[in-house]
Every structure is written in structure tokens, then in C-alpha cells.
Write a structure and sequence with these properties.
The complex is a heterodimer of chains A (about 160) and B (about 70). Chain A is about 70% helix and about 0% strand. Chain A is an all-alpha fold. Chain A starts with a helix and ends with a helix. The chains are: A mainly alpha (about 160), B mainly alpha (about 70).
Chain lengths: ~160, ~70
């Protein structure tokens, strides 16, 4: 499956805006880390497609990326990067990376539906997402965050 | 981000072309995938980079940072 230029630009723009926002919070992602994290994202996306298939009403030879999926996964991959056996980012930085992604995802939802989650829900979701790096049992991972946003989007689409 | 370290579409495309497996084929065609046109425009215009998002991000973080600091203590 190929991606057309517009869809590649979509992924690029999602990541670029996210990295620009992180830079404001003094998290500067080097070219080396960008390359590693984007390769991991694309590899994961390929694995996901192999496992679950592609569902599209449109052109079956072209893959259409989902914004919620791309940003949920990318933020978790970036926050979880390792330098040898150690985490590249500390706990506070990982929290900033995940909180920034969840703020962006909520703004996506607002753009799509005109409304998003309330702040209490977003704080709980972020706390559970950050816990992913220390306790699997009490946490939510990249697929869980993606599904939280995607589910509410799909539910509202079906109600219309 | 330093100017020399600016993330460009060309950099992204080079990584993409090196990493993407285009041999995978579609298996089902019964469910709409992708991103809505409305959201595509929002993302293309970088409309997410505004005060509303920054305040939301900081509001989420404030609570989390307090939690992390309390755990450290």
C-alpha cells in the first residue's frame, strides 16, 4: 500500500506541530531521535496493518493514516525511547510528552466534533498513560489512548 | 529547536521512503478509515499550535507534575 503526498504531509504536520509544542516546553528532539522514533512509528504501523488488515471504503491500494492513531502512537514511542538500558527521557519529560499529545488529541476531537473531553478526564487519562512506563497493570498504553479518542469520534459519527 | 535542526517534510519523506513497507495489501473494504477532511485542514493549518492548546496542555501537566513531585517526596 502506498501513501499519497497529501497523506505523508498529514503525518509530517502532526509530528511537526507536536515537536514544535514540545520545544516550547524545552524538550528538543534531535534529528537522530526524530529518525529513530519515526522509523519505529512506521514499523509499528506496518505491523498493525499486517495483523489487523486495512479497512477502507476508498482506494484499496492507498493507505489513509488516522490522525488519532499517528499521534497517540508517536508520543508513546518518543517518550519510551531508550539510550542503552536507560530511558532517554526522565519521568517529568515523559509526562510532558504524553500530556502534550493528549492536549493535541483533544483539540483534534474538538475540530472534528465541536467538543472534547473535560479536564478531569484528560488528567486521569494522562496519569494512566504515564504509568505505562512503570506499571503495566495500572496503566493505559498507546492503543488505549488511541481508542479512547477514536471511540468517541466513531460513536458521534454513528449518531449523526 | 535550532534552525539547523528544523524538521522538514523532506527529512520526513526520506525516513518514510526508507522505512515504509509498500508491499502490504488491503484486506477489507467495509469500514471508513483515515482522517476527516475537517481535521486534515486543522492539522495542515497547524491550528493546534495556539493558546487554547497550550493552556490545556499546561493545565493537564500541572496536576501530573504535582503528583510526580509528591511521589518523589
Amino acid at each position: 500500500m502506498k501513501l499519497n503526498r497529501e497523506d505523508k504531509e498529514l503525518i509530517y504536520n502532526i509530528i511537526d506541530a507536536f515537536l514544535q509544542d514540545l520545544a516550547q516546553k524545552h524538550i528538543h528532539v534531535s534529528k537522530e531521535l526524530r529518525t529513530i522514533s519515526i522509523k519505529k512509528l512506521l514499523r509499528h504501523l506496518n505491523q498493525h496493518i499486517r495483523k489487523y488488515g486495512i479497512y477502507s471504503n476508498n482506494n484499496p491500494s492507498t493507505y489513509e493514516p488516522e490522525a488519532y492513531k499517528i499521534l497517540s502512537w508517536y508520543s508513546f514511542i518518543l517518550a519510551g525511547l531508550k539510550k542503552g538500558n536507560a530511558n532517554y527521557f526522565g519521568e517529568q519529560q515523559r509526562a510532558t510528552i504524553i500530556a502534550t499529545a493528549i492536549a493535541h488529541l483533544n483539540r483534534y476531537l474538538e475540530a472534528d466534533l465541536g467538543a472534547g473531553f473535560n479536564i478531569s478526564f484528560l488528567r486521569k487519562l494522562t496519569a494512566m498513560a504515564i504509568t505505562h512506563y512503570v506499571d503495566d497493570d495500572l496503566s493505559i498504553g498507546k492503543n488505549g489512548v488511541y481508542m479512547a479518542f477514536k471511540a468517541v469520534y466513531m460513536f458521534c459519527q454513528n449518531k449523526r | 529547536m535550532d534552525k539547523k535542526d528544523k524538521f522538514t517534510f523532506e527529512e520526513f519523506e526520506a525516513i518514510f521512503n526508507h522505512s515504509w513497507d509498500s508491499s502490504i495489501t488491503a484486506t477489507n473494504f467495509d469500514f471508513q478509515n483515515g482522517t476527516s477532511e475537517k481535521l486534515k485542514q486543522f492539522i495542515k493549518n497547524k491550528a493546534v499550535l495556539n493558546k487554547k492548546t497550550f493552556e490545556l496542555r499546561d493545565s493537564i501537566l500541572k496536576d501530573i507534575e504535582e503528583h510526580i513531585n509528591n511521589e518523589v517526596k
